[in-house]
Every structure is written in structure tokens, then in C-alpha cells.
């Protein structure tokens, strides 16, 4: 056991340094002065060099060779699996390339934010071309002759392939498109109107975070252009955003990020600063954010409680009753923004990005042609043209920071959430009675016990299968959507 203990002690310091790097990223999104970007790029590159060196340290190979895996329990074997996987993958990437990616993506993020604000795609394209070049080089190193996109996807959803995703997406698309057509042809619920002051929205946001079990002793909420969750263990921070004419943007961004954060906060503290002391994959992570946001947060029961909270929080609020409010919250709109999309159309936004980024990584699509490809695909999928870049190719931060392979995990998370929700309803038959009082503890407790506390103990597919009692597939999600929106829209 000496070799294993030495390996884990070494790994603990690596995990701690990775948390520091993540904190730098959080600061860049929330508090860093804009003009500090060049220095931050160098700082991120420097810490990435240290992390890369630790992750491929020859001592790790020696320890892995010396450890008797048969003598380890389930937790020990999982730790060993994750360390070996990281060592083997990182060893394929030259240190200089890893540092350059960290530096360039840190700078590119700022370039994207300025270009987005100015509606200037051309100002962003040179930075994106450099990111794509570097990430393609990284993908080729990881793939070792195999599929580049599959190698990149493995960073976010281990053991998943683009072919399997395409198969699932192809099964989802016809029913989603058919449901959307029926809904858009029906009479729409009233839209929310009015003006909702920022501080009042943020006060409601805090109450929602607490209602869903977010522990403020180990976290905080700040504002960002693109909401996100950062950190794990004892320091898990989230961000939200405010649109004064659309408080749902703030409220459901908060609930979504709380889902991510509660996953990290719910992991067994015995795994703190170890390889399994974090979410097992981004697909499983998204299952938590999406079930918090949608199946719980947009349910008829919980929106009844939120309706009363909004009446108490805002002077001008023109929705007459709980039933109308539930329909308004779940209103299906024509729109451009993935993060603001309703449950029916959200996955269609993801499928667009999945296909475009695969083409970028394969070289079938040039960065200079990306905006035109996006606009053509969007109009084909949604039936109306993109009106401005911030509603189109510039709306997401992901590509600017090199997150290729990340987007499909959003749709995969919806699929996983459908399985979990079906199991949760069977396990907690009086769930709606509790949600009507704003009490999510039975639901979040079930998720914590059956999924969150295990961290990366098991593979993503096994994690969902054991928690839900079924093999992951799109059927549960599609059945849930068809039932919910057929009732709301009377179709």
C-alpha cells in the first residue's frame, strides 16, 4: 500500500493546483479587470505547465506499476483508473502545446467577449482560427491515428463516441420536431411583460439557490456574461445573469448552475482533492443541472410556489394565477439563444453545434465559413434567419476557450435527466406536494444519495444506470416532454 499512498499524496497536490487554476478562470469571468487579460494568459500558461509536468511525472508510472490493484477496494480501484487514464492521455500531449492552449484560450475568451459586445464576428475569427488549430493538434495527438473528435469528446464524456451520439440524436430529432410543430401551431400562453429590477431579481435568485440546497457556506453567486459553475469540494461557486425585462433568465440560470454546484457539493468528502472527488462527466453533470432547472424548477408544483414568491418580490406582476404562470414559464418561443431555449427546442440548438464543431475539427469546415454555415443551418432547423452575431455564432463562450466536444453533453444530460426523473417520481410519489411548498429536499436528497455522493466512482453510463434503474436512452425524456407540453398546449 505504500506505493498507492504515495501516489494519492502526490495526486492530492495536483488536484489542489487544478482547483487554483479553476479559481483563476472564475476570477477572469467575474472580477478581473479587462485590461489584465494578457497577464492572465501568461499566468494560466504557467500553471498549466506545472500541472502538465505533474500529470506526466515518471514517478506516476512507477507507482502505477508497483500498486497491487487486486488489493484495493472499489474506491481505490476507481482512483487508480482515473489516475491511469489521466496519465496516459496527458502523456500524449506535448507540454509546450498544453501551455500554449492555456495561454491562447485565456486571451481568446476576452477577444470573444469584446467581439460579441460589438457584434463583430471578423474581430473574433483570427483568435478562433488559432484555437481551432491548437485544439485540432491536441486532438490528433490524443487520437493517435483514431477519430480526432472522439478523442476530444472523451475529455467530457468518457467512452462516448460521435457515432453513438449521432444515433441517439437521430432518434430524438423526429419526435422533437413533430412536437415543436404541434406546439407552435397551437395558441401560445401569455408572455411575461414588465420591468424587474436587478436587485430584486438577485434576491429571488438567492432564495431559489437556498431552496434547491446550495450551501452558501461553501459557495457564492456572482454575475457573468455566460452563467457557469466552478470548483468542487468545499469551494463551489456559481454565476448568473440579469435581464431586467426577463427575470426567468436569471432565475433559471441560477437553478441550472445550482444543479451543477450541488452535484459537486454533494460528493462524499472522503473523496476531497482526489480524482474521483468531482463529477464523473459533463453529461452526468448536465443531468443534474437540467433536472433541477426543468423537471423540478419548471414543474407545475414548484412554479406555484415561485408564483407566490414573485408576487411578493415585484410590484408590477401581471400573471393572474398559478396555472397561467406555469404555462408562461414553459412558453415555447421562437428564439436564438440556447441557454434561453425551452425544453423542446434546446436539444435542436445542441445538435446544430455538435455537427458544426465536428466539421471544424475534421477540417471539413473552415473557420472563415463558420458564420455562414451557422446561419444556414439555423434557418434550416428553426425556420427564420439569425438577426445578429450575438444571437448566432458569437452567443456561446465554449469555442473561444477550446471546449470542443463539450456541446453534445448538454443534450446527453437532458437524456440522462429523463431517466432520473422517471425513477425519482417512482421513489417519491408525493413529490409534487412537497414542491408546492418550495421544498425540494426529497428530490435533491434522492439525487444526492443515488448519484451525487459517488462522484466519479463509476463510469458515466453506469452512474446513470445504477441511479435510475435503467439503461440510458431518450425514451423517458421524450415521453416526459410530450406529456407535459401536450397538457400545457392542449394538443
TrEMBL record:
It catalyses: Release of a C-terminal amino acid with broad specificity, except for -Pro. PROSITE patterns: PEPTIDASE_M32. Broad specificity carboxypetidase that releases amino acids sequentially from the C-terminus, including neutral, aromatic, polar and basic residues. GO terms for molecular function: metal ion binding; metallocarboxypeptidase activity. The active site is at 257 (proton donor/acceptor). Its cofactor is Zn(2+). This is Metal-dependent carboxypeptidase. Keywords: Carboxypeptidase, Hydrolase, Metal-binding, Metalloprotease, Protease, Zinc. SUPFAM superfamilies: Metalloproteases ('zincins'), catalytic domain.
Amino acid at each position: 500500500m505504500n506505493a498507492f499512498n504515495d501516489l494519492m499524496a502526490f495526486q492530492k497536490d495536483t488536484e489542489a493546483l487544478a482547483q487554483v487554476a479553476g479559481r483563476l478562470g472564475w476570477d477572469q469571468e467575474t472580477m478581473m479587470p479587462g485590461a489584465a487579460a494578457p497577464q492572465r494568459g501568461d499566468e494560466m500558461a504557467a500553471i498549466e505547465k506545472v500541472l502538465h509536468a505533474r500529470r506526466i511525472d515518471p514517478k506516476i508510472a512507477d507507482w502505477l506499476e508497483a500498486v497491487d490493484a487486486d488489493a484495493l477496494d472499489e474506491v481505490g480501484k476507481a482512483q487508480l483508473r482515473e489516475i491511469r487514464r489521466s496519465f496516459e492521455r496527458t502523456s500524449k500531449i506535448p507540454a509546450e502545446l498544453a501551455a500554449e492552449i492555456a495561454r491562447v484560450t485565456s486571451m481568446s475568451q476576452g477577444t470573444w467577449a469584446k467581439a460579441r459586445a460589438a457584434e463583430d464576428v471578423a474581430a473574433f475569427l483570427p483568435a478562433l482560427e488559432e484555437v481551432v488549430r491548437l485544439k485540432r493538434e491536441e486532438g490528433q495527438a490524443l487520437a493517435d491515428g483514431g477519430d480526432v473528435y472522439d478523442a476530444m469528446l472523451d475529455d467530457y464524456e468518457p467512452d462516448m463516441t460521435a457515432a453513438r451520439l449521432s444515433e441517439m440524436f437521430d432518434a430524438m430529432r423526429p419526435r422533437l420536431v413533430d412536437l415543436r410543430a404541434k406546439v407552435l401551431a397551437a395558441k401560445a400562453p401569455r408572455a411575461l411583460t414588465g420591468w424587474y429590477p436587478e436587485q430584486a431579481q438577485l434576491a429571488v435568485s438567492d432564495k431559489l439557490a437556498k431552496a434547491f440546497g446550495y450551501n452558501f457556506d461553501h459557495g457564492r453567486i456572482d454575475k457573468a456574461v455566460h452563467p457557469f459553475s466552478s470548483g468542487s469540494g468545499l469551494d463551489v461557486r456559481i454565476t448568473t445573469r440579469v435581464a431586467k425585462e426577463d427575470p426567468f433568465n436569471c432565475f433559471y440560470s441560477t437553478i441550472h448552475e445550482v444543479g451543477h454546484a450541488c452535484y459537486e457539493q454533494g460528493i462524499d468528502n472522503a473523496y476531497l482533492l482526489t480524482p474521483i472527488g468531482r463529477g464523473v462527466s459533463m453529461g452526468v453533470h448536465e443531468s443534474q443541472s437540467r433536472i433541477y432547472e426543468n423537471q423540478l424548477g419548471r414543474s407545475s408544483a414548484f412554479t406555484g410556489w415561485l408564483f407566490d414568491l414573485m408576487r411578493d418580490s415585484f410590484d408590477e406582476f401581471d400573471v393572474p394565477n398559478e396555472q397561467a404562470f406555469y404555462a408562461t414559464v414553459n412558453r415555447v418561443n421562437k428564439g436564438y439563444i440556447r441557454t434561453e431555449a425551452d425544453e423542446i427546442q434546446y436539444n435542436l440548438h445542441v445538435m446544430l453545434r455538435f455537427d458544426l464543431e465536428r466539421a471544424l475539427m475534421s477540417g471539413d469546415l473552415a473557420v472563415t465559413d463558420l458564420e455562414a454555415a451557422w446561419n444556414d443551418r439555423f434557418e434550416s432547423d428553426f425556420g427564420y434567419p439569425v438577426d445578429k452575431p450575438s444571437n448566432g455564432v458569437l452567443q456561446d463562450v465554449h469555442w473561444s476557450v477550446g471546449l470542443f466536444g463539450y456541446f453534445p453533453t448538454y443534450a446527453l444530460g437532458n437524456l440522462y435527466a429523463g431517466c432520473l426523473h422517471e425513477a425519482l417520481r417512482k421513489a417519491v410519489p408525493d413529490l409534487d406536494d412537497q414542491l408546492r411548498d418550495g421544498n425540494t429536499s426529497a428530490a435533491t436528497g434522492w439525487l444526492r444519495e443515488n448519484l451525487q455522493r459517488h462522484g466519479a466512482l463509476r463510469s458515466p453510463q453506469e452512474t446513470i444506470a445504477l441511479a435510475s434503474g435503467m439503461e440510458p436512452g431518450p425514451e423517458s425524456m421524450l415521453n416526459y416532454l410530450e406529456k407535459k407540453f401536450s397538457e400545457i398546449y392542449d394538443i
